[in-house]
Design goal:
Order of helices and strands: EEEEHEEEEEH
Number of strands: 9
Largest sheet: 7 strands, mixed
Distance between the termini: 43 Å
Length: about 180
Amino acid sequence: MPTIVHGFDWPDRIVVGTIGRPGERAFYLQARDGRRVTSVALEKEQSAVLADKVAELLDEVATVDDNRFSVPETAPKELFDGDPLDQPVEPEFRAGALSLGFDPATAQVVIEAYPIDDEVEIVAEETGEDGEVEAVVEIPEPAELFQVKIPVGTARAFVERTREVVAAGRPPGVA
């Protein structure tokens, strides 16, 4: 059965947002292009790691020798999106795995989310100097895929907003 792809190239909007009170919030990755809106449920931790990894990717692209991409160090103010999620929020699936890449042909960050029920095989694990474990996974052809391609300025704004949304909840360690 072919994969159902919820794809967005140059979307009007890409955000992480929440519904609910701190301590009871549900997190969503949401993209909009015109009237089409697609949401994917995330965990708070997935949201935080996604923001960090997008920031790392942008920093890495900015340091490439003979870089032809103009990667801003901070989010352009006009690209910041502080609005709530588009309603109604009806997630297509809960994300089990996320992947991140960069398309040099279009200078876009590529974010992909795969459903939690798809089987993922860990091919390799590596522990970084900071103790963070990064896994290389093999994902069989998924039933569904959420894919968003965004320019670097929008990606910086996405990182800033996502970090604000994650930090707006209850402090870490508070039950």
